[in-house]
Amino acid sequence: MTRLFAAMVASLFVVAGASADDSKLKVKEGDAFPDVSLKAAQVEKLPGKKAGDTVTIADLKGKNVVVFFYPKAMTPGCTVESCGFRDAAKDLPKDAVMIGASADTVVKQQEFIDKNKLPYALLADTDLALIKALGIQSGTSKVPQRVTFVINKEGKIAKIYGKVSPKDHPAEVLKYIDALK
Predict the structure, then answer these.
(1) I need a labelling partner for 105 at 20 to 30 A (CA). Which of 23, 55, 73, 128 fits?
(2) Are 36 and 69 in contact (CB under 8 A)?
(3) Is the pLDDT of residue 10 over 80?
(4) Cα–Cα distance, 125 to 156 (Å, whole number)
(5) Is 83 a catalytic residue?
(6) Rounded Cα–Cα distance for residues 89 and 96 (Å)
(7) What is the number of domains present in the chain?
């Protein structure tokens, strides 16, 4: 029984420690962010978009963009991080856009938005197209790693945050984007 318990605890640490491994990323700072078209909940919150539209990073050229990936909507860590970004969103510079992203469906993303009063769009990468293009899929599971990308006005990756604390990360990103010109 003790061995089984020890094995279960050890496996939890392996899963919990599975954050972005830079050696598996398919992009680096300075690269163009992949231009993958995705559906999004609350897409009308993005400049020039209306309900039902898809979004690509090219649609947001001329803006600094924060795209934070989280494993699964409605889970504790993802809720803490998303609500932290919700609270930081009011302090974003005028030339910045915030977007959350996971492999959840648009319906699940909308439920997450409604429950937590999130003021930004949430990408629904159900086919893992963007997640795989970035190299942030968590092993063989259908969830992304918790990674944040800051994309500059030219569509290039300015900053990658691979090991983040859901609680402290939003303030860290806000500080960085405030300094980005």
Answers:
(1) 23
(2) no
(3) no
(4) 20
(5) no
(6) 9
(7) 1
5 assigned to some structural domain: no
pTM, 2 dp: 0.86
Element (H, E) at 101: strand 96-102
Q: How confident is the model at residue 181 (pLDDT cuts 50, 70, 90)?
A: low
Q: Where are the alpha helices (DSSP H) in 135-179?
A: 169-179
H/E segment holding residue 8: helix 2-16
Q: Any idea what the CATH number is for the domain that residue 82 is in?
A: 3.40.30.10
Rounded to 5 degrees, φ, ψ at 116 are -110, 5
Catalytic pick among 38, 46, 78, 173:
78
pLDDT of residue 140: 86
> How far is it, in rounded angstroms, from Cα 173 to Cα 155?
17
H/E/C letters for each residue in 108-146? Answer: HHHHHHHHHCCCCEEEECCCCHHHHHHCCECCCCCCECC
| Tens-digit pLDDT profile for residues 140-158 | 888 999 999 999 999 999 9
